[in-house]
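If I may wish for something, please walk me through the protein I am sending here so I can picture the backbone:
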Amino acid sequence: MRTDSSPGTLPAREHLPAADAGTPVLDVVIPVYNEEKDLRPCVRRLHEHLTRTFPYAFRITIADNASTDTTPLAAAGLETEIPEVTSVRLEQKGRGRALRTVWSASDAPVLAYMDVDLSTDLNALLPLVAPLISGHSDLAIGSRLARSSRVVRGPKREFISRAYNLILRGSLQARFSDAQCGFKAIRRDVAQVLLPLVEDTGWFFDTEMLVLAERAGLRIHEVPVDWVDDPDSTVHIVRTATDDLRGVWRVGRALATGSLPLDRLARPFGDDPRDREIQDVPTGLARQLVGFCVVGGLSTLFYLLLYSVFRQFSGSQTANALALLVSAVANTAANRRLTFGVRGRGGAVRHQAQGLVVFGIGLALTSGSLAALNAANGHPAHSTELAVLIAANLAATVLRFLLFRAWVFPDRDEAGPGSGLAPAVREAPYAQAYAVPHPHPYQATQVRAGDAADGTWRDATPRLQPARPHDTDPGDLR
């Protein structure tokens, strides 16, 4: 797992300011491998579209993934012919590696990529990047599975795409609709913190980036696209699917064990400066409820099993107390780790002590219920005892969740306002800074975006530059 020695949080999103500067606003990366036939018409078409429709300066970067044909020569020729085109040569294959390398070195505030076949209609490009420029969203993706999308492709690819997204929803609780559409964009300040957490260097790179961003609470904007399948695509479907499933297992395991320091990607509440000082904003309530219910259901089965075992050699009150004590310790540990996302040993003893207080309340409810049952019926059946205990545990469960959330595992005590994560998470060894060479024309950066020397945040986003003088004309409504 990668590690990172400089954890932090992202500043609030802001509209990228427009002013005269020499930095392109948008850097569109085209990763290629042996695309000597399609590269030149693709780049020329994209350049013509951006020149005609995009109101700010832009750059097109060709990322050559160790091509063995004449693709490097074609890229060099385009770089010479078109001022807005540059090329980068990588000696190793991998779309994820190419995107990480170029995005990590780029100085543009908005970073995008698209496949060389231009299967996606370019009219979706401006809607893709506009929410990032405005500060509304952190990432944007094209979706072929949105209801208003228009897609032309064979049934096999359609089935594979939908099945893959169902797998992501079922295993990683992903809520975005299309992970693998080759049409995405990200803000640079987000990329500089998010990319070191992404391990994959191939086709799973997109999925891993989106899952981590979504789990961290970043805003992902989806754009319905018109998409026409490329019949000459060189993607190996079986090998890609196998690698993707391995990636799903790896990321799912990392999320389950808490080795992902996602608090580095936290945003302040609200984008209005008046809202950014709000403390203790409730976060993850729905997820915590689901996790608590799952843990509670398993704990109840464990408790009933223990009660039945202890009841063989002790009275009902003794069996209830022992079963509840053992299950309460296991329940507190499981909720601490799985429901409320607290990792590490820090505070574990205190949490268990507070959990025992909650256990005492549950003991009073269940013991009182058994006492009332015995008073009404001197020799109740075992099934009747279990039914009464289930009802009493349901009432105790509601109270237990409220006490856990407000007292035992409050957000403000564990990781600061709104994070819901313990300090130990910020030290988890997962995301080591990814060291890559910075090819021409990019400049190497030694500090994360917005991270000042005094530890405070500053606006490190380049200011936007209108590409043409008439773009600043108030009377131009284009």
